[in-house]
Design goal:
mainly alpha; 6 helices
C-alpha cells in the first residue's frame, strides 16, 4: 500500500532533521563536540540527499561519484581524527558505508529508481555493514536509557546546576546518532 517513495521521504525528513540539529550542536562551547557535530551534520545531510526518491531526483552517474569523493574525503578526515578520539572510528565506518553505497549506485543507477537492488542477494560487505550498524543502534539505544538530563554542578561544589544550551545536550546528540544508525540500516537494506 505505501510505496518506497513514502518511506524515502520519511528517511529524508529524519536525516535532514538530524543534520539540522547537528548544525545547531556546532555552536557548542566544547571544541571536540563542534568537530564531531560537523562530521555528523555532513553525514545527516548526505544521507538525506542520497535517500531522495528517484521520482524527485534521479542523479546522473557523476553525482554518485561526487558523493563517493566527498565521503571518501570525510573518511580520510575521520581516520586522521581517530588518532586522538576513537569515536571517529564510527565516523570512518559511516563515511566508508556512504562511499560504498554511492559507488554501488554509480555502478547500477537504475536501482535507485526503486531504492532497491536487483535481488541478487546481499554482498558480504553489505552484510558486515548491516551487522555493524545494527550493533551500533542497539548499543546506542542502551546508552540512552540511563542518561541524566541534569548538567554537572558548577564549580564542583554542588551548589547549583549549570544551564545547558541545545548544543550541549548529550542525550539529544545520542538520539541523533541513534537515528542516523537506523537510517543507515534502512539505506543498506535497499541496496
Amino acid at each position: 500500500m505505501h510505496g518506497p517513495a513514502q518511506a524515502g521521504w520519511l528517511l529524508v525528513a529524519l536525516c535532514a532533521a538530524t543534520g539540522s540539529y547537528c548544525l545547531l550542536r556546532m555552536r557548542s562551547r566544547v571544541e571536540a563536540q563542534r568537530r564531531t557535530a560537523g562530521s555528523e551534520a555532513l553525514m545527516g545531510f548526505g544521507m538525506a540527499l542520497m535517500a531522495l526518491p528517484a521520482a524527485v531526483l534521479a542523479p546522473p552517474r557523476w553525482a554518485w561519484l561526487a558523493y563517493a569523493a566527498v565521503f571518501g574525503a570525510a573518511a580520510l578526515r575521520a581516520l586522521w581524527a581517530a588518532r586522538s578520539d576513537r569515536h571517529h572510528l564510527h565516523h570512518l565506518v559511516g563515511a566508508c558505508a556512504m562511499v560504498y553505497m554511492a559507488v554501488a549506485m554509480a555502478a547500477t543507477p537504475a536501482a535507485h529508481a526503486g531504492h532497491g537492488g536487483g535481488g541478487g542477494g546481499a554482498p558480504l560487505l553489505t552484510g558486515f555493514l548491516l551487522l555493524y550498524f545494527a550493533g551500533y543502534v542497539l548499543v546506542s539505544g542502551a546508552r540512552l536509557l540511563p542518561v541524566s538530563t541534569v548538567a554537572a554542578a558548577d564549580g564542583g561544589g554542588g551548589r547549583g546546576v549549570a544551564v545547558m544550551g541545545w548544543a550541549d545536550r548529550t542525550e539529544l546528540a545520542m538520539v541523533c546518532r541513534l537515528s542516523m544508525g537506523i537510517a543507515m540500516i534502512a539505506m543498506l537494506l535497499t541496496l
